[in-house]
Amino acid sequence: xxxxxxxxxxxxxxxxxxxxxxxxxxxxxxxxxxxxxxxxxxxxxxxxxxxxxxxxxxxxxxxxxxxxxxxxxxxxxxxxxxxxxxxxxxxxxxxxxxxxxxxxxxxxxxxxxxxxxxxxxxxxxxxxxxxxxxxxxxxxxxxxxxxxxxxxxxxxxxxxxxxxxxxxxxxxxxxxxxxxxxxxxxxxxxxxxxxxxxxxxxxxxxxxxxxxxxxxxxxxxxxxxxxxxxxxxxxxxxxxxxxxxxxxxxxxxxxxxxxxxxxxxxxxxxxxxxxxxxxxxxxxxxxxxxxxxxxxxxxxxxxxxxxxxxxxxxxxxxxxxxxxxxxxxxxxxxxxxxxxxxxxxxxxxxxxxxxxxxxxxxxxxxxxxxxxxxxxxxxxxxxxxxxxxxxxxxxxxxxxxxxxxxxxxxxxxxxxxxxxxxxxxxxxxxxxxxxxxxxxxxxxxx
Length: 446
Fold this sequence. Notes:
By secondary structure, the chain is of the alpha+beta class. The chain has ten helices and eleven strands. It folds into three domains: about 10-160, 2-Layer Sandwich (Beta-Lactamase); about 195-295, Helix Hairpins (Orthogonal Bundle), CATH 1.10.287; about 300-445, 2-Layer Sandwich (Heat Shock Protein 90), CATH 3.30.565. It catalyses: ATP + protein L-histidine = ADP + protein N-phospho-L-histidine.
């Protein structure tokens, strides 16, 4: 199966520059096109105004000439006026369509040159049909000016787009310099510098949430790395003792010939150490699965009080040996993973039995929290746990102090970690309280 092609990276500065340049060209183009159209309309209006003024002069002159002279006099007047206005072309026709007057060949071609035209009528003094006239103005100069203006506006538009593109690219590069600084700081972080955090000389509002999230992530990574180093050391320490015992017992057994009962005793001792090793490995595998997000397999709702009673019966022997009694308070129906909850309860009861005062009473409380949640506590009377140790009580291989350990009943310190893992698998969490000689350890489930 072919891997999907990696998309090509693009430059934010170049993309923004291109987009803003295009927007600028479009915006300026529309604006300058409106200006050009308005200017051309002003030219056309001025041309029509000139034509109307000149046609008014022609009409008045022709009317006066027609009243006191002949058509020949009118032609002479028009010839004289044509010499005074070389940029215009005048044509005058009688009512029957015959030409009365037409300017000599003008300096421009009315058929091809840019022109502005106006038609007018001249009333006759004798009351006959009026003369029809056509006045054409040469607009070549205005057209040339318009072309120059159009070229200038196009050049201004392109220059404005180019300037905006350059300015945007420069500004974006300057604005992205904090990101480059953050990238350089990130490259400098390695395993030996996990305590380093991202900072900016000038805090940026848009980048601050990213910096805070990254620094929070690095804090969690650092804490996890420290815990992992400690965990590895604890695992090595916990495995070293049973391995040393196995090696020592085996070396002693091999140092001289042994009888069958003696070898059986050595094998039984080694079996105990091997079982201890197997327990540590199994617990570590279970915690690894819980860390990967495995959820509990819930069954039908059942009575938690009955579940607690079953676990208590399993611990009757060590409780009688320590002279301990137990009370079960409360009950709730909840859909849980029965084997996992029994394991968590067994770990809590074993922990409470181990540290409870002799001839005291244990208490298991089942409290309903909200509509769906349930909290389960195991309480014992005994040495209090220091407040600074409570947050780490559920860490792997953690032991508060010597007062919380029994050398004759060693354990590898994963029981409460498993309780916390089972609580997470039921969408809950573990908690502990200790004060006035009473310690409560438990978890809630949803």
